[in-house]
Amino acid sequence: MRYQLYYWPNIQGRGEYVRLALEDAGASYDDEARHGTGMSAMMRMMDEKRGTPPFAPPFLKAGKLVIGQTANILLYLGARHQLAPKTEAGRLWVHQLQLTVTDLVLEVHDSHHPLGPTLYYEDQRAPAKRRSEEFWKERVPKYLGYFERLVRANGGAYVTGRRISYVDLSLFQIVAGLRYAFPKRMQAFEPEIPRLVELHDRVAVRPNIKAYLASDRRIPFNEEGIFRRYKALDL
Amino acid sequence: MRYQLYYWPNIQGRGEYVRLALEDAGASYDDEARHGTGMSAMMRMMDEKRGTPPFAPPFLKAGKLVIGQTANILLYLGARHQLAPKTEAGRLWVHQLQLTVTDLVLEVHDSHHPLGPTLYYEDQRAPAKRRSEEFWKERVPKYLGYFERLVRANGGAYVTGRRISYVDLSLFQIVAGLRYAFPKRMQAFEPEIPRLVELHDRVAVRPNIKAYLASDRRIPFNEEGIFRRYKALDL
Fold first, then answer.
1. Does the distance separating the beta carbons of A107 and B67 come in below 8 Å?
2. Domain boundary pick from A18, A47, A80
3. What is the ipTM of this complex?
4. What is the pTM of this model?
5. From B64, which residue of chain A is nearest by alpha-carbon distance?
6. Is A92 found in the same domain as A21?
7. In B, which residues are within 8 Å of A103 by CB distance?
8. What is the per-residue DSSP string for B69-132?
């Protein structure tokens, strides 16, 4: 099946977690909003009266299904593309971890948008600075320390052991994104999470991911996305 | 099967969405951290080296399974207690809606904690006021307008039509919580969402929910939870 992914065309954002899964799986898909009239089709689908209109991008069209919410899309794709365990217990565990990544992603976003997503960063510089401090003092160590412990406990290459799952692809993105947005803070922090850094490197050289990262399908990080490089928020 | 729910003992918080599902289903469960040594057991389970230690409460013990993340717990319970559709498409849809409720719940929390969860409200009063303004101006209309449209389009009693699902129980809690935390703002806003208000009332009189709400198993709203009544943030 060929999928249609609907997401904002100029950012990695939350769509990137879906792109990474589709790319690693070698699935065929169109990144709809990046060409032709895809963007207006995307807006139309959210306005639909009938059926299952998504609240926000990203969403994935898979045949007749329209699936929204990043972690929900990955739940669906994981089962079909060997990116999740086969047992119910395993699937729930990987999904639980992905939902924890989801929480972290929102906290990354809030580091530059503490007063909410509808105001500009320029209108919330001072609170953003305070929130970023708190984010690095309390939250990054808590979240990344948790995933680091899981990789260590499993003694494996990936967060659930020897086999990759979609949550590993997402953790790759977290490490890459934090390096982009907070280069100094992240450099200082990386010695605390050696196994996550190795996991990042291991994902980066997977053939499909490597090809994707080198292609123009990978949108560069920028200051419209989740991970934004604002000097004032770094060290 | 008898479940064990692990959640902070003094607040409704995120655990409440799980409690409402367990109660409506008439499932037997223990609210572990509310008695005996349950609280220290809960902390211990998050520190486990092996297995599937959850990142944060709530989590549910179901036999050998330990399931974390509110929406993930509901995904599991929904399938077992007729609180979700049987088809894969239906299950993904209800889960997608629950993840949208999850996003809203976090925005409710951030209305009084814009600088992050680790600082006190008293240390972020001014940004909380700004964020609450934005929350009611932009976000509440967007989220609740979305769910209102779904109920209207389905012409049904519940958000997916005639049959209840766990997301309806969560929407009940959203309406009840916003009424508690922002009584004036919510009163002014309710004419915009007549069907959600009806849905709230319909859930409130379901026999198991009615009995639960009247029992001491229902922890009262308070200023340690997600929905907090701070006069300065209301109108």
1. no
2. A80
3. 0.97
4. 0.98
5. A89
6. no
7. 55, 106
8. SHHHHHHHHHHHTT-S-SSHHHHHHHHHHHHHHHHHHHHHHHHH-TT-TTS-GGGSHHHHHHHH
